[in-house]
UniProtKB/TrEMBL annotation:
Belongs to the bacterioferritin family. Fe cation 2 binds at residues 51, 94, 130. InterPro entries: Bacterioferritin, Ferritin-like, Ferritin-like_diiron, Ferritin-like_SF, Ferritin_DPS_dom. Keywords: Heme, Iron, Iron storage, Metal-binding. This is Bacterioferritin. Fe cation 1 binds at residues 18, 51, 54. PROSITE patterns: FERRITIN_LIKE (PS50905). It holds the Pfam family Ferritin. Fe cation 3 binds at residue 50.
Amino acid sequence: MKAKEGVVDRLNKILTAELTAVHQYLLHAALCGNWGYERLEHHLKETATEEVGHASGLIDHILYLDGAPNVERLDHVASGATVAELFKADLKFELDDVQLLREAIAHCAKVGDFTTRHLLEHMVIDSEEHVDWFETQLEAVKQVGLERYLAEQLRKEGS
């Protein structure tokens, strides 16, 4: 199926963001694991896996639209020296991702590509849930203090 004007370009931009997210969440998971925060490590690895699914779906959809997926580029992978810095970087990343997805959804609606719009609407729901999770974690740190929050992150649930 031939893509509508501008759709593949936007999808490739989102693909770059999703691939960057995979790298960023894997890095942050490894950092949390290295610091002994198994619960955070587990959550961030699951988030990275979810982003891999998004990237895979985008690649398939770009090919469906007779486009060429660009998997060769990444945006800046943010890091940090503390859990709070990681959360702030991830929150910023997800807020930017939500904006990127909303703009692409609006474009797809404008050009009449409702299949792509539907795909992106599911992705924006996931990104908004990530925003909520990071906001909640940062608020918990603020309310109970960093030390208490981190003490709860030492063991993964069920351990």
